[in-house]
Description:
Layout: H1 17-27, H2 32-38, H3 44-53, E1 56-59, H4 64-76, H5 78-81, E2 86-91, H6 100-110, E3 116-121, H7 140-143, E4 151-155, H8 163-167, E5 174-177, E6 196-199, E7 213-218, H9 224-231, E8 240-246, H10 258-265, E9 271-277, E10 292-293, E11 307-312, E12 317-320, E13 325-328, H11 332-345, E14 351-357, E15 373-379, E16 388-392, H12 397-400
Parallel strand pairs: 1-2, 2-3, 3-4, 4-5, 5-6, 6-7, 7-8, 8-9, 9-11, 10-12, 11-14
Antiparallel strand pairs: 12-13, 14-15, 15-16
Amino acid sequence: MKRAPRKPKRGQLALPPEICALICEEIGMARKRDLLAICRVSPLFRDQVQRLLYRVIDLSESSPRRLESWCTAVSRRPQLAESIHTLILELDPGIALSSNMAKLARALAKCVNLKELTVRDSTSGRRPYYLSQHPCIQGWVLNTCKFRLTKFDNFFFSNSMLSQFWNVQCDLRVLSTGHLGDSFPFDAEQLPNLIGLEVRDMRALPAARPLERIELHTYPLPTLDHLVPALIPYSPTLDTLDLLHHLTEWDAAQTLSIFSHVALAVPDLLHFGFPERLNEAFNYLREAESPADIPFGALSKFTRLETFFYYSHNTVEFLDHSTGELYDLGIPVDIEAFGRVAMDACPTLRRVVVAYDLHKPASKRVPKPKDPDVVCTLTRGVAGADTHVEHGTRFDLKKTSMFWRP
Length: 406
């Protein structure tokens, strides 16, 4: 039962709810302090501010107490739960054995308008990639929910325990699931609108689906004899490809010759990314001792590539043999020049992001740097136009990649 609108006290500002909503929308989420301050102008603004603040809920890196507090809040106030559009959860596997699982289920059931859901294992980053935690089998937590997702990032629940959930997710367009295995487990009738899929095994790619976006984890980088044939069937429809390469002690000096082979398999890509990733179990890996060859000549083989990003963990120096130039990605001036080389290699490119991971202490005695990354973003309107450059200190894969775009 919804609350009746509060009647303003004498002397307080009285505005229709529609006007209050427009004012709050104009202020926007970028100015949260202003949103909170406007609640003191009139109680009528309070509901509109809560609606905006609850639109995106990020509970990553949250304590069990904070998660429990959120579950209690939305269970008791369904009008808040109905405002949630995007929810990010990071859960400890131990929650499956606690009473908090039932509280989480009740809270999720109230989020009837939820469209984007991320559920992650909070301990996954502390294990080698090949020692992934067994997925949670408590699928009943989601099976009774009525929301219809458009995006689902699941690295927590077992897919086989979500059969009832999959059957009703007819609006799902982009799916990432860490426990997909080596085959695509969904029937032709399930997930009919799926266009984007993140997989950790090439064998899980569904040949019968006209996928438009693929994120493929590689551990180690697959042989070209396997990668190219796996991508060619998607060439007519695929416009976005990210190869998430997990570094190990066996391939820490991996070269980037893969670019030319990707261009051969899917030359009509619009968006291509190659982020290197490092699990904490391999944080002893050192930088490559010798410079790598610049791989961007292969970008010219793409016919309509618009965005490209590269996140380097292991290789800090690149050598351009044609000019003798040496680029150190740890130096902002060099990483910008490195990005311009990529931009100039492909006339159709409109955005290039190049980043380098600074978190590589050689021993426990070496402190971590103040900034996690060196990031350079270059954008231009058309080929030959002036290039806009932005420097940053934190690389965000989800925000950089076009895989999760609307």
